[in-house]
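Example record for the data management plan.
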Amino acid sequence: MSISNYKYDPCSGRFFWAIKPKNGKGRVGEEVGSLTAKGYVVIRVDGKNVLAHRAAWFCSYGVWPDSDIDHVNGDKKDNSIVNLRLASKVTNNQNRSSPYITNRSGHLGIYYCKDKKRWRAEIIKELKRYRLGWYKTAEEASAAYWAAKSVLHPDSYHAIQNPSDVDPNVYGEGCEAPGGYYKDHLPSWLRPL
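Corresponding structural encoding:
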């Protein structure tokens, strides 16, 4: 099936049958697509599964994207064209809304250190790791992460949607931790006093 067998609605981000499918399954106007294990919508094009957000880009701009497509709001099922943007892998990863499956804290950018009995917050920008300090609770560490994210990843939808309620003048313990603290590259309000 070619892409012309489908009609793309740029407002809803959904695909529908434009013609009656040859296999007889489905009707004109019926929604098409299925979810992958990672939560993305796929449609069948020329015998291959194609990510619907990439097909949406093609339907809207007439060219297949040559880089990652980022879901601005982090919702992998929202393929409306206003929610899609070309992005580098780095930018796309900075727009994560949830931690990797291997993360046991349930929060982005923090982990628990058993030896110190503290939570560490850190963030990465342009392959540099910024250590944001040690905190007594996961919530404090997470708030520090979101405060830094709003400055270091300003294009991230989630940085805008999760404003920190932590005073930017409050820092975690041990900011001069082994491995270095990149105070010269942080905004002034993130630097130790």
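Summary line stored alongside the record: The radius of gyration is 21 Å.
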